[in-house]
Amino acid sequence: MTRKRQEQLGSMVEAFTARLFLTRAADPRLRLVNVTRSRVSADLKSAAVFYSILGEAGDAPPKEIRGALDKAAGFVRSSMAKELSLKTAPKLRFVYDRNPGHAQRIQDLLKSVGASGGNPADDGDVAEAAAAKERGFAAEVPAAVLRGRGDGEDGAGDD
To answer: Which of 104, 47, 56 is nearest to 76 (CA)?
Structure first.
């Protein structure tokens, strides 16, 4: 039961944080942040939110974005508790995810050796597959969440 709740809360934290940064962030730097995954502690009191920065492939995030994330952590936590009706929202810690940069390096290497057999149409598929493998499927935020419908209105389970 605890493991299942841990995974559910992790998905909620990830989706809520991503949507909040896209739609309600007062700081424009937060719109550059892509939430890639999250991990909630066994006691559900803390969560690591992994992120990448759109257009960046470095090993470390710019300091100004890191500062904006740290400053926004309390706001994100309190908003999450209110909007998701959580008795206690986990304390958030933002962790730069180096995997997206690694996926970009793989893509560049594949392009340089001609892994697609010379067919430019295949390059995007190879790169997308490499990036998806590095990120894991949890990095994808459902379209319903991005539209603000993260409450199950997407029709799943209506059979």
So the answer is: 47
Looking at domain 2-98+136-146, its CATH architecture is: 2-Layer Sandwich (3.30)
Q: Return d(Cα 156, Cα 159) in angstroms, integer.
A: 8
11 touches 138 (CB < 8 A): yes
Residue-wise pLDDT for 144-155, tens only, equals 444 444 444 444
Average pLDDT over residues 84-111: 79
pTM (two decimals): 0.61
How far is 116 from 131, CA to CA, in rounded Å?
Answer: 16
Instruction: Give the full edge-to-edge strand order of the sheet including 91-96.
Output: 33-40, 46-53, 91-96
Nearby residues of 37 by Cβ (< 8 Å), 6 or more positions away: 10, 14, 50, 97, 135, 136, 138, 139
- The angle, 0 to 180 degrees and rounded to 10, between the axes of the packed helices 2-23 and 63-83 is 120
Q: What is the DSSP string of 54-84?
A: TT--SSS--HHHHHHHHHHHHHHHHHHHHHT
Structural domain spans, the chain: 2-98+136-146
8 A C-beta contact, residue 14 and residue 38? yes
Q: Work out the number of other CB atoms within 10 angstroms of the CB of residue 22.
A: 17
